[in-house]
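Lecture 7 notes: from sequence to structure.
We start with the chain below.
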Amino acid sequence: MGARFEALDELFDDTLTLPFGDTEYVIPSPSAEDGLRVQKITSLAARLQAGGEAVDTTLLDDEEERDLLALCLGPVLDEMLSDGVAWSRVRHAGLTAMFWVVSGPDIAERYWKTGGDPSQWAPNRETRRAQKKSGSGAASKTRSRGSTSGTSGRRATASGRKGGTT
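Predicted structure tokens for the same chain:
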């Protein structure tokens, strides 16, 4: 007999709740079609960045950006606009929802907590170096790989040069 699965409704929360002071906005999961459109847009952006496009390249014009946020926020977009929420906050909520749609709640929460500041996503070079020197962080606990060429990496000393003779 095959495995018995729980009902999906018991496993998933198909909403994302974002707090704005005393107000909470509950964003519903987009339809499958809209979720696939969001995935396609973000995949294109990732490919452009991987291909060397500048991070600040505008990938969407204003109308396309609003459409993306509408896909991600659903009916909550109109609610936020009618409540007079500032555009920067609406945009942050929309991008948080985009990360939720594409990558799940953990990545969305991480983005939300950074306030949209990309420098907060990963430690900067100084922080990484300080972690290595102090011995904290995974990098300092991981042994580096040895040479794969079959050599030890040490220079051989010529016996003829020992003692200054050639």
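Points to note: The radius of gyration is 25 Å. The chain is about 50% helix and 5% strand.
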